[in-house]
Write a structure and sequence with these properties.
32 helices, four-stranded mixed sheet, single chain, globular, about 5% strand, Serine Threonine Protein Phosphatase 5, Tetratricopeptide repeat
Length: about 650
């Protein structure tokens, strides 16, 4: 249902456009930043099962049921018509906070029995209800029967709407289907459930049947659902016809904005630009507060104008007009315009001003503005606006609401720029704050100590502090990963192997990494990819223990890595060359070639870097660094071309 309701806050097309525009806006520093932050191993309240096989949540508290059986009991005891199960993709992350802690959803959630469970531990939901994806929201009655469910990211407005529908019709799907044969109201609710659960073809058949039976007396909601299901099922002409009928019969209907969004999408699909613009203009005028208006504006500007038509200048003009309309979505439009402007010639200063405006306004999008500013600065090391961004973040670091969030970004930028002392000081202030970002500060301090200072002992202490203070939380796995790396660089191979074994087990069955890993990894990745890297590294540790000169190779390799982290390129290069010359058959030889290429890139010797990485591809097929070397070479080719 992504094309109508909007799954999450940004479409996949929008995310792809963001990646492309930010990359185009970069210089050599884009590639340098990625390479220099990467390291060879890149890349707790754990969910448990009780005797009955039901899931218990991590970091459980009395407000949340610990199992499906307990949830059903709470529903019955409270006399509640339904309860909810929230399935998280990576424990309680940003999406869950944005949706379930929002002013619109929080009171609705607080009013019903509830349970939360991570996807990895959702076996009972997969087996009993056929859950296929996370994030997810399941509505159940006291007997455990499903009422409806949502899978995938949705925006607040849609989740609230489903809550209201379930509250009105809290019947399980089996009973609802029986009632639908006799009651048109139940039939319409059944159509809604079919759409909520991802069955638009069946919903369309029910819409056609119901429309025929009601013989022209169908309610406004049925027209909307008919247009919606037709669009989802690919019957675009039928969707357009029914949408026009709705607007003609119900010009002031409550679904007007949603129907106009359907019309906008259909116009984009059929490349009718003027029609889409006219419809959006009506939405900005008459439905400015509707989230469908936000969806229509951003989709038309980014997906259609900037991406499909490749006309970012037109997209910029359109978004400027939308911003001037004075809607509640101005921050969203400013963020979209910043993305568009970042891809225009000489457009970066204006893009940065948009981002600064979003941050200074301090609304829900402020942290996203901070993230984008940090991303631009990271891709523009040494450019004039990078210094301006740092000055702006320094100013925001003194603000009451965003101070520690700004300090975290400053620490990351200082580390990227090689100013380890300032990076550590900012991370220290965050870690000592006692606030919600304190564990992020501890993780970042550990990463700074390891990758910036080459001080594994200090890193071990920082990760250990996080483990001690936040055991059983979503921060624990990232702290364990950092600790495992520090142990390796201290040549405590056995301890490191045990730590990596825990991580490999933790990652089994997961689809997503918790957001805490963003402070210990050079870039986020799917959990299964990260698990494969951990498994490959564990095998490497086992091989080292068997090698005749394994201890000697490890000692040299660690010395080279620490020298590189401290900025001593000459020593690091000499050590890694010695590893490749003296131990070409070692399981660390391919890693040494990767490091030699990284050091060459650091000093601008692209041809030499290419030679080292090509050596891995040619001579170390099947090694854990083979795929990384291929990716680095592909990145160089894209950068040159």
């Amino acid at each position: 249902m992504s094309w109508i309701e909007g799954k999450g806050e940004e479409s996949s097309e929008g995310r792809e456009f963001k990646r492309r525009t930010l990359f185009r806006a970069g210089t050599a520093a884009v590639f340098l930043a990625v390479i220099l932050l990467a390291e060879m191993f890149g890349g707790c309240g754990r969910a448990k099962k009780n005797a009955a096989g039901d899931e218990t949540i991590s970091a459980a508290d009395s407000e949340w049921a610990g199992s499906l059986a307990e949830l059903q009991k709470r529903i019955r005891e409270a006399g509640a018509p339904f309860g909810v199960v929230i399935i998280t993709g990576s424990e309680w992350g940003r999406y869950e906070k944005d949706i379930y802690e929002s002013p619109e959803i929080k009171p609705l959630l607080a009013a019903v029995p509830r349970m939360r469970v991570d996807w990895k531990a959702a076996d009972a939901l997969r087996e009993r209800y056929g859950a296929k994806d996370a994030p997810g929201l399941w509505f159940l009655d006291g007997a455990g029967r499903e009422i409806t469910h949502l899978e995938g990211a949705r925006d607040v407005a849609f989740v609230r709407r489903v809550f209201e529908h379930v509250r009105e019709y809290p019947k399980p799907r089996t009973e609802l289907r029986e009632s639908a044969e006799k009651d048109s109201g139940a039939r319409i609710r059944l159509i809604e459930v079919l759409l909520e659960t991802g069955n638009p073809d069946t919903a369309l058949l029910e819409c056609r049947r119901t429309t025929k039976e009601l013989k022209g007396a169908q309610p406004a909601l049925l027209y909307y659902l008919h247009a919606y299901s037709a669009g989802e099922a690919g019957a675009l002409r039928e969707a357009e016809r029914v949408a026009r009928q709705y607007l003609r019969k119900f010009p002031g209907g409550s679904e007007r904005a949603a129907v106009r969004w359907i019309q906008t999408f259909l116009a984009m699909k059929q490349k009718r630009q003027r029609s889409a613009e006219r419809t959006i203009s009506k939405m900005l005028s008459a439905d400015s507060t509707s989230p469908y208006t936000r969806q229509a504006v951003t989709a038309f500007a980014i997906q259609y104008l900037a991406r499909s038509k490749r006309d970012p200048a037109a997209a910029e003009r359109f978004l400027t007009k939308a911003i001037k309309a004075g809607t509640p979505w101005s921050a969203d439009f400013l963020l979209a315009r910043a993305l568009v402007r970042s891809g225009l010639p000489n457009g970066m200063p204006a893009a940065l001003e948009d981002l600064r405006t979003v941050v200074k306004e301090g609304g829900e999008r402020a942290e996203e503005g901070l993230d984008q500013l940090t991303a631009v600065a990271a891709s523009r090391v040494g450019a004039p606006w990078a210094a301006d961004i740092i000055l702006f973040l320094q100013k925001m670091a003194r603000s009451e609401s965003l101070g520690f969030a700004a300090r975290l970004r400053l620490a990351q930028l200082y580390l990227l720029n090689g100013d380890v002392t300032l990076a550590d000081e900012e991370a220290r202030l965050v870690s000592a704050s006692g606030g919600p970002l304190a564990p992020a500060g501890m993780l970042l301090r550990g990463s700074i100590a390891l990758d910036g200072e080459g001080n594994p002992k200090k890193a071990l202490a920082a990760f250990g502090e996080c483990l001690e203070k936040f055991a059983g939380s979503t921060w624990e796995p990232a702290a364990r990963y950092g600790r495992a790396r520090a142990l390796f660089f201290l040549a405590r191979v056995k301890d490191a192997a045990e730590a990596y074994a825990f991580l490999e087990k933790y990652l089994q069955g997961r689809r997503y990494l918790p957001e805490s890993f963003r402070y210990v990894l050079p870039s986020m990745m799917p959990a299964e990819v990260f698990q494969s890297q951990i498994a490959a590294f564990r095998r490497k540790l086992a091989e080292l223990e068997k090698e005749k000169n394994g201890a000697a190779v490890l000692k040299e390799y660690v010395a080279g890595t620490i020298a590189a982290a401290r900025g001593d390129t000459e020593t690091a290069t000499r050590v890694f060359r010695a590893v490749t010359a003296d131990y070409p058959a070692s399981s660390l030889a391919d890693d040494a070639y990767i490091q030699l290429g990284t050091l060459a890139i650091r000093e601008g010797r692209v041809r030499e870097a290419t030679k080292h990485w090509q050596r891995v591809v040619n001579s170390y097929k099947g090694s854990d660094q083979y795929e990384r070397a291929r990716q680095y070479l592909a990145g160089l080719r894209r950068f040159r071309g």
